[in-house]
Design brief:
- The chain is mostly beta strands and 132 residues long.
- 0% of the residues lie in helices and 51% in strands.
- The chain contains no helices and 13 strands.
- Strands 2, 4, 5, 6, 9, 12 and 13 form a seven-stranded mixed sheet that branches. The chain has a four-stranded antiparallel sheet with strand order 1-3-8-7, with no helix packed on it.
- Strand 10 and strand 11 form a beta hairpin.
- It is globular.
- The termini are far apart.
């Protein structure tokens, strides 16, 4: 069992930066796939960024490419989401997710986990509000 706790959310102005943290406890998750999702009222939880294996590629939703960076510190059992040049449309509750199962791979490579159902463990969420 893995427990995830997010922190770092808050109220900022458009153009500002925030760094979200997700601390994992219970098991070492260096081999876990990790990701960030976000959700606004009345909408489904959407994928934001993923790092599906330590040292592997990172993946981002198009709307945050070039502004957000996902990273992990396995020694601290922590995942980060650095968010720069924030926009009002980034306002949401941000959730950290982790999953221990290996990615699906084929001869052309391994496929990132981009869907909520692919992750077994979730944090409680942290609110990010960007005022314009």
């Amino acid at each position: 069992q893995v427990q995830l706790v997010e922190s770092g959310g808050g109220l900022v102005q458009a153009g500002d930066s925030l760094r979200l943290s997700c601390a994992a406890s219970g098991r070492t998750f260096s081999s876990y796939a990790v990701a960030w999702f976000r959700q606004t009222p009345g909408k489904e939880r959407e994928f934001v960024a993923a790092n599906n294996w330590s040292g592997g590629n990172t993946y981002y939703v198009e709307s945050v490419k070039g502004r957000f960076t996902i990273s992990r510190d396995n020694a601290k059992n922590t995942v980060y989401l650095q968010m720069n040049s924030l926009k009002s449309e980034d306002t949401a509750v941000y959730y950290c997710a982790a999953d221990p199962s290996p990615p699906k791979c084929s001869g052309s490579g391994c496929y990132p986990k981009l869907e909520t159902y692919e992750y077994a463990y979730w944090g409680q969420g942290t609110q990010v509000t960007v005022s314009s």
